[in-house]
Amino acid sequence: MAAYKPVVVQACPKLGEKITQDTLYWRGYKTPVQIKEFGAVNKIDFSPVPPYNYAVTASSRIHIYGRYSQEPIKTFSRFRDAAYCATYRDDGRLLAAGSEGGSISLFDVSGKAPLRQFEGQTKPVHLVGFLSDKYRIFSGGDDYSSKLWDIPSATEIISYSEHTDYVRCGCASKVNADVFITGSYDHTVKLFDARTKSSVMTIEHGHPVESVLLFPSGGLLVSAGGRYVKVWDVLKGGQLLVSLKNHHKTVTCLCLNSSGQRLLSGSLDRHVKIYSTTSYKVVHSFNYATSILSLALSPEDETIVVGMTNGVLNVKHRKPEEKNENSQKKRQPAYRTYVKGRSYMPKQEDFCVSKPVKRVLRKYDKLLRSFQSSKALDAVLEPPIMLHTPEVTVAVMQELHRRGTLRSALAGRDEKQVNLLLTFVARRVIEPRFTPVLVIVADMITDIYQPVVGQSAIVDKQFLKLQQAIGKEIDYQEELLEVLGMMDTLFATFTKKRDTCLEESKSNGVTEIIETNRNY
């Protein structure tokens, strides 16, 4: 008697994620820490100096967190209404923030009360930042104006009213202490020079601008608005270099890593996309629970902090790299110990003893070997197998059909078992790898249980689902055939045009040769 051959399960290749150096690097961040704030987190800003604390603006408070602390180490709460866009100065000693009432507050990080109050804007201030000389502040608000302030005297230096809608974002140049940029809901990005009375450059983004970012060199500008992230060359008068459309909803925030080689964008579609600044292709992506409003990366790229609309702060830290150069590793056996005797060839006078390999059969194989068809089918209809390895269930069905016992295995089942069978068939019959087998199974189930249709509402519902699934697939196939017919017609037309052009060029060439000969 021949030995039993186990059921062969056809393995289909899975399209996995391509593993790159960027994938390994960004996966190196540990499981996030969740911190609940009092409201939606509208701004996160890291201190540029060690120990790299970060300020979180949410509701009417500004919380200062340590890198690894889950509780705020300091709180600024002297705001009558909502606070916006708390931003550190380059030395990490001062913090400026806007408010719903239109005032701008300047705080000393080591104190509690505001050092200065800047009054002058009539509506909420959503943009506050420091110029690189550290002695001036620029701001933008919902009154459509952008202003420049002097810190020592707390007075207004100059005001610009060129935007025609809310001013919601901006940044300062690190190369030139007089240059700052603002973005507005009027779809424009404007570059201002404090030495002039009007903007020196206007860039049309095409959508309400939510965030702007200037590269450290000052030559490239990134703007985000709508679903687009656009990169502009400032030195060429605001020429568009690339337009990225990788998000499904509005992009709300931008961020650069410390080297400037990776650009991060957060969106209301719950994703953070990471781009290479050389090719501007997405190299990695993070997925979050809810829509993202703010994003920040620590100066040493050790921490990613994301603020969301539900008030949750998501903090990820990089796993520390273990470098124990001084620790002595336990000595392992030499490689030759493992391979000793493997390459030995037996001689003619040697007596070889072969050790039989024990074959472990799975439950369904054991049942098939003992010709228990119905029980073998029951074994592969268990939920873990049907959900995670449906190819095993289909392989057993195919084997039963080959043996001619599939009909008897499907017959004689109660309402619960028929419901399970129909659920699996209706879900998987449209998959091309399973269709040939499951169409036969569906046909047999219909023949066997047709007399009992109408006796069980559950079974009737599953039959209707199966009918709908097959009907949708047939309609889809018909549409595909129509598209293929259209494409064939187009390709045929292109081929005819090309042949006609070639014939004309050949005839023209012959005519030219004849005319040349006549001239001679």
Q: Estimate nothing, just give the exact number of structural domains.
A: 2
CA radius of gyration is: 35 Å
Assign a percent range to the helix content.
Answer: 25-40%
Overall residue-averaged pLDDT value:
87
Stretches where pLDDT is under 50 for at least 5 consecutive residues are 510-520
Number of helices: 10
Strand content: 25-35%
Specify the CATH architecture of the largest domain.
Answer: 7 Propeller
Q: What is the CATH topology descriptor of the largest domain?
A: Methylamine Dehydrogenase, Chain H
Please give the alpha-carbon distance between the first and last residues. 94 Å
The fourth-level CATH homologous superfamily of the largest domain is YVTN repeat-like/Quinoprotein amine dehydrogenase
Biggest sheet architecture = 4 strands, antiparallel
Strand order across the biggest sheet? Answer: 1-28-27-26
Q: Count the strands?
A: 28
- What is the CATH level 1 assignment of the largest domain? Mainly Beta
Overall shape: elongated
Structural class: alpha+beta
